[in-house]
């Protein structure tokens, strides 16, 4: 257990099904759930919970059942009110949030892109190029999907085991790079203009699977363009210097990443979520969901992307795996899986 000062808990409640991911939008929390039944059969839902202005009272108002369990939920950073879920049945769904009533969701796309037995483990939007998604799977694949053209490109080098997370770089000159992490301890970097083979592969930085990735963007660590954070089952968060040298269009560049810092968080680093205040308020904090050790608020040096420290710790009633978290303004919400606990905190 961390010795960092705890955050104040505002409220706690239970979901109907085990939650593994969540997003906050306005005064609503969307919880993606995952239920395993006999064999490989899984199902899930988006539970919609509304909260008051203080974050002390939550009420479940809607429940959208899905044919497959939900492993990840993400908001489109370039189109407010659009949310994407990825599923255990090889499909992703794009939802439109009603602008008048954010508890109401409508499907605008349900796309079956893999075999129905393939679990999509994560989904992320590009932060600079509209309508591009990166998806990862239990089969080790990392793919980029163009929503405008309904076209998918699978990266040529796959992971040897489950691929847990994928992230686009978005800084100028790096916007064609996609980074993936897997159970094989590898990080792979592909240039999506020439995806036939990875331009960089490393299996020595981490001593267990790579399960979260956060790359420098205009909203997080913008002055350190080459900074990438990774989270691993080995309980460490790492700050990596990418130092990518781009090539001409159609040709691979080169990359020489190195680990700048590695910090033990005492729990598998499943999620890394930067402050919603971003650079506008110079809020240098990142929320980390640490599996069996609750969640932690990390601080860092905005100029270098390292000097990572644990600023606050919170666990409360999270007695099982803390998989999901998000924050808006000063409200942090985290969820844990088997105990079906959701807790709100004052950031």
TrEMBL record:
InterPro entries: Diphthine_MTase, WD40/YVTN_repeat-like_dom_sf, WD40_repeat_dom_sf. The keyword Repeat applies. One of its GO terms (molecular function) is diphthine methylesterase activity. Pathway: Protein modification. GO terms for biological process: protein histidyl modification to diphthamide. Keywords: Repeat, WD repeat. This is Uncharacterized protein. The keyword Secreted does not apply. The lineage of its organism: Eukaryota, Fungi, Dikarya, Ascomycota, Saccharomycotina. GO terms for cellular component: cytoplasm.
């Amino acid at each position: 257990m961390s010795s960092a000062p705890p955050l104040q808990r505002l409220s706690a409640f239970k979901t109907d099904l085990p939650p593994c991911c969540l997003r906050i939008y306005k005064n609503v929390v969307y919880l993606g759930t995952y239920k395993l039944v006999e064999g490989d059969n899984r199902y899930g839902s988006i539970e919609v919970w509304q909260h008051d202005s203080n974050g002390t009272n939550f009420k479940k108002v809607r429940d959208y059942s899905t044919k497959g369990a939900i492993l990840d939920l993400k908001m489109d950073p370039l189109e407010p009110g659009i949310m994407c879920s990825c599923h255990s049945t090889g499909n992703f769904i794009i939802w439109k949030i009603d602008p008048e009533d954010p508890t109401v969701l409508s499907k605008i796309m349900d796309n079956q892109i893999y075999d129905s037995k393939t679990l999509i483990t994560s989904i992320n939007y590009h932060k600079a190029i509209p309508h591009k998604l990166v998806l990862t799977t239990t089969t080790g694949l990392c793919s980029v999907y163009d929503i405008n053209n309904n076209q998918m490109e699978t990266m040529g080098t796959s992971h040897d085991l489950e691929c847990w997370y994928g992230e686009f770089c978005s800084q100028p000159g790096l916007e064609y790079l996609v980074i993936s992490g897997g159970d094989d301890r590898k990080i792979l970097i592909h240039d999506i203009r020439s995806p036939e083979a990875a331009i960089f592969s490393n299996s020595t930085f981490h001593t267990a699977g790579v399960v979260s990735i956060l790359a420098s963007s205009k909203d997080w660590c913008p002055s350190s363009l080459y900074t990438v954070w990774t989270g691993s089952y080995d309980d460490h968060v790492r700050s990596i210097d990418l130092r990518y040298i781009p090539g001409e269009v159609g040709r691979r560049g080169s990359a020489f990443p190195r680990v700048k810092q590695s910090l033990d968080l005492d729990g598998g680093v499943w999620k890394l979520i930067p402050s919603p205040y971003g650079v506008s308020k110079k809020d240098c904090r990142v929320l980390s969901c640490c599996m069996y050790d609750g969640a932690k608020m990390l601080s860092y040096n905005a100029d270098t992307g390292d000097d990572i420290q644990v600023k606050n710790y919170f666990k409360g009633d999270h007695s099982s795996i803390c998989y999901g978290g998000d924050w808006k303004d000063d409200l942090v919400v985290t969820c844990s899986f088997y105990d079906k606990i959701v807790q709100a905190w004052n950031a």
